[in-house]
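Tokens as discussed.
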């Protein structure tokens, strides 16, 4: 019996013979399809990763892209798309510079195939050293200044991300070393944790063909500003005599000195803005409970000596007491 085999991904495939409706030789024979690799481009890039690399060849699993695997220096190159003749993946970050082996396989292959080598180049790696400010509104609109090296001199060739959210209106203040951009709203579900700041330099016509900047521990935190109406559901910020509740999972940055409050209940986080010269919080009752945080500096980053943060509790002998907690 002879037959024309269908197009199959690389790996071992069982051969089964049907005769008269009966399944025979179900495990007796296999056909091995090799992964044929003809090249890879580009062959060099940034240590920060984020570059789209194309592996040309045949035998990729087109039906199920998750069955394809590419590694660069032992780290996974995340598969973006696959066709019958090529696979595109996004390079991983690397800790050091130098040459890396690139291997490819389908998960049904017993052993991977050597694709070639990829050079991690210091000269292609932009470096971020700091950004300012390090916090801004969840509504976006914060002017962010980023300093580093090897940004180039063409702002249209740059892409900046804060977490997964784009930072737009990129301007090169100083070629290669300093740029500014305007933050957008964070992506849904991003949470209040600090987000990594990344700069990408275009490496080709496709937006995916980019080389990232070594991030260097630079972070930006999206917070709700006390002074913004968006923090209060579109209403004005709290007025004198109001009571305020900050729920769990919400971080509010105290960027103004609010009028005297009756009560402040914090189950999320209220953080004094250390970029302000002077801040004052006044209330009759302040209750921080259920895992809440009232923050003015940390052990790692003490509140600046040139800034002032003060809290005043108001009350007298006749002030009503809160159950369990009492009063001032």
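Sequence:
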């Amino acid at each position: 019996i002879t037959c024309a085999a269908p197009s199959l991904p690389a790996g071992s495939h069982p051969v089964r013979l049907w005769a008269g409706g009966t399944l025979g030789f179900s495990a007796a024979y296999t056909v091995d399809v090799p992964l044929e690799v003809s090249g890879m481009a580009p062959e060099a890039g940034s240590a920060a990763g984020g570059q789209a690399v194309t592996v040309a060849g045949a035998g990729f699993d087109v039906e199920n892209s998750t069955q394809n695997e590419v590694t660069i220096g032992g780290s996974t190159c995340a598969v973006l798309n696959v066709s019958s003749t090529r696979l595109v993946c996004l390079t991983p970050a690397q800790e050091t510079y130098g040459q890396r082996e690139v291997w490819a396989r389908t998960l049904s292959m017993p052993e991977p195939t050597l694709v070639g080598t990829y050079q991690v180049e210091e000269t292609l790696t932009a470096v971020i050293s700091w950004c300012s400010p390090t916090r801004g509104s969840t509504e976006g609109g914060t002017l962010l200044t980023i300093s580093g090296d090897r940004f180039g001199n063409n702002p249209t060739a740059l892409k900046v991300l804060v977490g997964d959210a784009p930072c737009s209106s990129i301007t090169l203040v100083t070629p290669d070393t300093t740029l500014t951009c305007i933050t957008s709203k964070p992506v849904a579900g991003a949470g209040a944790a600090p987000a990594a700041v990344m700069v990408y330099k275009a490496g080709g016509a496709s937006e995916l063909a980019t080389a990232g900047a070594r991030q260097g521990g630079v972070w930006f935190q999206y917070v709700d500003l006390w002074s913004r109406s968006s923090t209060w559901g579109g209403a004005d910020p709290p007025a004198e005599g109001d009571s305020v509740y900050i729920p769990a999972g919400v971080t509010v940055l105290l960027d103004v000195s609010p009028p005297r409050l009756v009560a402040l209940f914090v189950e999320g986080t209220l953080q004094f803005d250390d970029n302000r010269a002077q801040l004052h919080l006044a209330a009759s009752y302040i209750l921080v409970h259920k895992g809440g945080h009232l923050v003015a500096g940390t052990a790692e980053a003490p509140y600046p000596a040139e800034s002032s943060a003060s809290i005043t509790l108001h009350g007298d002998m006749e002030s009503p007491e809160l159950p369990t907690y009492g009063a001032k």
